[in-house]
Amino acid sequence: SFKQAEKAVHQKKEQSKTKCRKARRRHINSVAEFNRRQRKNIWLETHIWHAKRFHMVKKWGYCLGNSPTEKCYRACYRAMTKHCLLQDLSYYCCLELTGKENELLKQLARLCSIDTGLTFEEACCLSGRFEGSLNLYRADRYPEDTLGPVTFIWKPRDGSENRQLWIWVHPALKQDILRELKAIFQCSEAEDVCIPEPGTASVQEEKQMDVVLSLGKKRKKEDKEGEKAVPVKKIIGDGTRDPLQPYSWISQTTGIVISDRTMEILKYRLIGPLSHSVLTETLKAASLQTV
Prior knowledge:
POP1 protein; Pop1; 28% helix
């Protein structure tokens, strides 16, 4: 009887130590854990939402939702035809060109042709009211040596001769198009080097922050301070760019600046008849303040 009582007490202690599934799966430092899991494939800002509902694939340096886990095709079709459907296109790479409008148009004309339709000089697009799309070719090589399709949008004029142009390219085409843009604008000198913020952990430091996984034991961090440890900051970069490489280049002859704004300027697509209504209800115009 004494042994049975001792066994019952022992079992009671074992049961008290067990936690619910949510508590057992909770990481002691979710920021450090998420950064560790993004070393090879960057997450979009909507990654957690997609990871719970989609089969994820690793492509072009990103972790993307490929197909839904539930049968929601009819719901998506209904949203596209009657309501509003949002798509996260932030994995597309954004290249920003800044400089004099005449110089930008002069060199960009070498990458496209009026025979294919739209160009960077289209009046409705040049004003900044509409987004344009076209196919790019290597400089002066049309109709051969196609680089690929891109979309672009001009920042509306502010009275100065300097303009800003954002070109959105697929990550698989980014390196070829960026190389061609740097060649035609003679942007060889790096303007800035992306330096991680103070406190950003390197790979070795993140390894020290990794958890010790063991069966039946609580996850613990290899840090003397324990809970007082500072969370790891997210390293600047994206799936197509090393965080320690230059991300902005300037031309000494023309003053044109090319900047890689990937994962800095996000892109979402709204589809459906109520898209405009959703935008007007979501976005509020800021009050104009003059200095």
